[in-house]
Design brief:
The protein is α/β, with parallel strands linked by helices. The chain has 8 helices and 7 strands. Strands 3-2-1-4-5-7-6 form a 7-stranded mixed β-sheet, sandwiched between helices. The longest helix has 15 residues. The site of S-adenosylmethionine has 18 residues, from helix 4 and strand 2.
């Protein structure tokens, strides 16, 4: 497993940007605190990334969002806030305990009416979402071994123009040395290669530093 190392300066700059520019609200703070109280690992997106997700949902005009990997609902709150009042966010979570905490958090944030949580392994719950209106926006942030499978589902459940964001695509640089984390890195590399090669996708990938160490995200558009 790789260690996600954060330089003190990266975290300080992120705190400054969060306070001055991002300005999380009480619901975001509550979700973060509840995750700590529940003993969850601190693997939610950073606040600046959460706000970027909200802005991308708004800028793309999405009405239906799919999230894979809920945790305490931190990113769910940001994205649901970017949806119109009659919009829908379906979020897939493996663990009942995480789903329970997330449900309380999205309800307390006043966006619970837009959020549906599907509990179970996403590869089991995603097929149940077929045959409905397509998703306009998909955020992939669960078990990295399945990133390429989740991209496939995002395409299947989306439409031409669907925006896909995939988190954690740099993994402390282990994408160039997958032997450093045989559990996660090969799945990320497979997904990156799919993002570059699959004729159904047009994509870019951005590396970042901050409170979550050296990492990054990919943004794709279904052709
Ligand atoms: N998106 C969240 C946020 O930023 O607030 C963080 C999600 S966290 C990185 C990953 C979550 O995916 C965990 O809650 C974990 O239990 C869940 N997960 C792991 N494997 C999964 C699977 N096969 N199906 C569904 N969820 C899974």
């Amino acid at each position: 497993m790789v260690e996600h190392v954060t330089e003190p300066g990266w975290a300080e700059v992120e705190r400054y940007l969060t306070d001055v520019v991002v300005r999380p609200d009480a619901a975001h703070q509550r979700a973060l605190a509840s995750a700590v109280e529940a003993g969850m690992p601190p693997i939610e997106v950073a606040p600046n990334a959460g706000k970027l997700l909200r802005m991308l949902v708004q800028l793309s005009g999405a009405k239906r969002v799919l999230e894979i990997g809920t945790l305490a609902g931190f990113s769910s709150i940001w994205m649901a806030q970017g949806l119109p009042d009659d919009g829908t966010l379906v979020t897939c979570e493996f663990l009942q305990q995480h789903a329970d905490v997330a449900r309380a958090n999205v309800d307390a944030a006043g966006v619970g009416h837009k959020v549906e949580i599907r509990i179970g392994a996403a590869l089991d719950t995603l097929p149940m979402l077929a045959g409905h209106e397509p998703f306009d926006f998909v955020f992939i942030d669960a078990d990295k071994q399945n990133d390429a499978n989740y991209l496939e589902w995002a395409i299947r459940l989306g439409r031409a123009g669907t925006v896909i964001v995939m988190d954690n695509v740099i993994w402390d640089g282990a994408i160039l040395e997958p032997e450093r984390d045989r559990l996660n890195a090969p799945g990320i590399v497979q997904a990156l290669e799919m993002l570059g090669n699959d004729p159904r996708l047009d994509a870019t990938a951005i590396q970042t530093v901050g409170s979550k160490g050296w990492d990054g995200f990919a943004v794709a558009r279904v052709r």
